Amino acid sequence: MEPVIFWILSAGAVVSALAVVFFKKAVNGVMSLLAFMLVMAALYVLMGAQVVAFFQVIVYVGAVLVLFAFVIMLLNLKDASSSIFALPPVATAALPAVLLTLGMAVLGWFVLQDAAFSRAPVVLPPAPGLRQIAGDLFTRHLLVFELASVILFVAAVGAIVISRKEGDRS
Amino acid sequence: MSLEHFVGLGIVLFTIGAAGFFIRNNAVVLLLCIEIMLNAVNLIFASFARYLYGTEGQIFIFIIMTIAAAEAVVGLGIIIALYRTHKTLDMSSKL
What we know:
heterodimer, A: mainly alpha, Four Helix Bundle (Hemerythrin (Met), subunit A), 2 domains, 7 helices, extended, B: mainly alpha, Helix Hairpins, 3 helices, elongated
């Protein structure tokens, strides 16, 4: 049963990612990205990382994508240019092919590097639960956690400074 | 399912995101492609956390999500400022 779910989910992820790239309007791209995020959450559940799936839905779907949709609605883009691609057609066709080939080469190299290592164990141990992750996060990785809060604060202040109107003193 | 299935899927998704970043000319779609790449890396981290018996992978995912949220906020701020000054989001036009 698990392989069937995996292949269905991975097909959904690839299709929705391609839809983000090839949709002409940015709003459609945001909606495809919504589907992509939900499929990724399902993949995390398949991998036993329920906590990550939970935060994926809350952070990405609940915050980041709403922000994207908000900005697109706010800007009210009407300048539909004739071409959605920045490069000439030959380069547009060749670049994904080259990148995909390089990616497959990396994967092949990774698999051949240590065949025994990439062979899945017969019985996987139970995935770490919320208690174990929280214990690790707040003891061994406490500094990273605090730095993340600093980064969020700096980003909030920076976004206000960047998007403020020039000469707006208020 | 084995480790390289998930890593392969992550590589394919990262490639789609990277290619989209290079070939599209709408600034908002460029940010969406960055999100796809970050999610692909998250998937690879989660699969390593699953198959190499650790919690570190999931903790890294939380940190990456934080960075992604901060990046989206700053990027959208830049897009608003860009649209206000240049009246276009077309990255291939002469600004």
